[in-house]
Amino acid sequence: MTVRVTTLGNGLRVATDYIPTVESATVGVWCDVGTRDEPAAVNGVAHLLEHMVFKGTRRRSATAIAEEIEAVGGHMNAYTAREQTAYYARVLKDDVALAVDMIADILQHSLFDPAELKRERAVVLQEIGQANDTPDDIVFDYFQAAAFPKQGVGRPVLGKASVVRRMQRDSVRGFLADHYAPNQLVLAAAGNIDHDKLVRLARKKFDALPKPSKQRRDPARYRGGEHREKRDLDQIHLVLGFEGVGNHDVDYYPLQVMSTLLGGGMSSRLFQEVREKRGLAYSIYSFAGPLRDGGLFGIYAGTGDRQVTELLPLVFDEVTKVATRVTAEEVGRARAQLKAGTLMALESTSSRCEQLAQQLLVFGRPIPTAEIVQKIEEVDGTAVVRVMQRLIATPLTLTALGPIKHVESYAAVSARVQ
After folding, report:
1. Is residue 81 a contact partner of residue 34, using CB atoms and an 8 Å limit?
2. Vertex 80, ends 35 and 244: CA angle to 5°?
3. Does residue 50 carry a catalytic annotation?
4. What is the pLDDT of residues 103-161, one digit of tens each?
5. Are 182 and 206 in contact (CB under 8 A)?
6. Residue 402 above 80 pLDDT?
7. Catalytic residue among 23, 38, 50, 67
8. Taking the CA of residue 60 as centre, how many other CA atoms within 13 Å lie in the half-sphere pointing to its CB?
9. Is residue 225 over pLDDT 90?
10. Structure pTM?
11. 367: left (phi over 0), alpha (psi -120 to 50) or beta
12. In the prediction, which pLDDT does 388 show?
């Protein structure tokens, strides 16, 4: 594995992960901006912008953008998250220049045509409606909002329908101008790629970015709390959890191991106790969601309105047990799962490209795989117990959606870990 990074005079970082054994490459631009950077009055603008850049430039119509990349067998996509936005393409190695040209074009020369904006607003509103109609999706937005109330980091990535419906062209264009400066971007590529050629392409193609900016991001302030919503569903969808840790925290890797041990696979405690032994849920798992300056730890379960009275005490029994003692065997099993996932991701150009870009945005440097594996290996049972104790000392966040009559009160649930 050969990783190289060059910073251009305008602040744009160009990074490559050379893989000579493949015939393709993934290339994209990762932007250090997301939903948490939006003012409340334009919640959803980052996501709407991500849609709109594909709707036509000075040189390409929306149809031409789709046809041109697919004419060479390539694939182009994008996503918006709470702290990042990404635009990327996977192509054969001989078509990297085309992919770079297209990404540079949509990020610098999009027209934001009013008629296209009207249509795309309608599409995003359909997307919001679909999410609202998917309980095991929208319950996570409720969880985020309850954990971080009245903050950008707690607002939905898709935005609120009432806000998106009145979003104007100037808001979308202004958000790009304010946040897509070169010092906020990373052009990353992984695969059969020539670093020096990519640098030359970047200098030539990314010549119309906004002036470098010094955007300030409000700190994430975890509060905890609850959100309950009665719906006529067959299942209750529950997400419960605590304040997590950030990307730079000493407990980042202990939390990853702990989450895997508790609810990260078929051998995990929650899967075995809740599903395999008692049949109380089809889906149950835990997750860690780190941010730059904080994070969330949560447990999701879908269960029946009667089963919830047995499930909730059982979940918290397992949580408190992990805060007391874990075995070397299960810690080793969790570490093995994390290491395998890390190493298997090396077989994908897309995974390697995204990982490289995110490392530069979050840590300011590429992190060797050996370093990641070593940090996973260093996690022992003491660290796992310590991080769980740290988590349960924070206020509980609880969200429940569905036939919630038998869900215990927030105070009663919180008392289970006090």
Report:
1. yes
2. 60
3. yes
4. 999 999 999 999 999 999 999 999 999 999 999 999 999 999 999 999 999 999 999 99
5. yes
6. yes
7. 50
8. 22
9. yes
10. 0.96
11. beta
12. 98
Do residues 15 and 5 lie in contact, with contact meaning Cβ atoms separated by under 8 Å? yes
- The tokens describing 42, both together, are 């334009």
Q: What is the pLDDT of residues 241-299, one digit of tens each?
A: 999 999 999 999 999 999 999 999 999 999 999 999 999 999 999 999 999 999 999 99
The amino acid occupying position 277 is: K
- Lookup: tokens for 17: 């992960």
Q: Which residues contact 32 (CB under 8 A, 6 or more apart)?
A: 83, 84, 184, 185, 186, 361
- Per-residue pLDDT, averaged over 362-386, amounts to 98
